[in-house]
Design brief:
This protein is an alpha/beta fold. It has helices spanning about 55-60, 80-95, 110-115; strands spanning about 5-10, 15-20, 25-35, 40-50, 70-80, 100-105, 125. It has a seven-stranded mixed β-sheet. Helix 3 links the parallel strand 6 (about 100-105) and strand 7. The chain is globular and about 35 Å long.
Length: about 130
């Protein structure tokens, strides 16, 4: 069972960080709009699995009218499972034409392998 231990919102920078503590370590989802509103960066730290479903949904909600490019930064993602793949697909469906595009970036080799096997390169830009 996870427990919310921290939440901060800075309206000036439109930055939201949600941190969780779960058996075995900490995880987090953070959201950061660029100053011009053209990019929304969502960073996942630790394990990307079902325990992050609510925080991940919150990270891409309320994107406004600027039609940003959504960048999912996987630089600090150690692991993702089928529920994480489902969350990415649900995000894509939910956002539809309200964004310019969705990019998955900075995946570690093991995470990239899962994305490749799942053929996510056919649905997302993976860089």
């Amino acid at each position: 069972m996870s427990e919310r231990v921290g939440y901060s919102a800075d309206k000036l920078n439109q930055k939201i960080c949600v941190k969780l503590i779960k058996k075995g370590g900490s995880m987090s989802v953070s959201r950061d709009f660029s100053n011009d509103g053209k990019q929304l960066v969502i960073a996942i730290k630790g394990k990307f699995d079902f325990s992050l479903v609510q925080e991940f949904r919150q990270a891409y909600s309320h994107i406004g009218d600027s039609q940003p490019t959504v960048i999912i930064d996987l630089r600090e993602t150690d692991y993702l499972d089928s529920s994480a793949l489902g969350m990415l697909l649900n995000m894509r469906k939910s956002l539809g034409s309200s964004v310019k595009g969705i990019q998955l970036v900075n995946a570690k080799p093991d995470v990239r392998r899962i994305l490749d096997i799942s053929r996510f390169d056919k649905m997302f830009v993976i860089a």
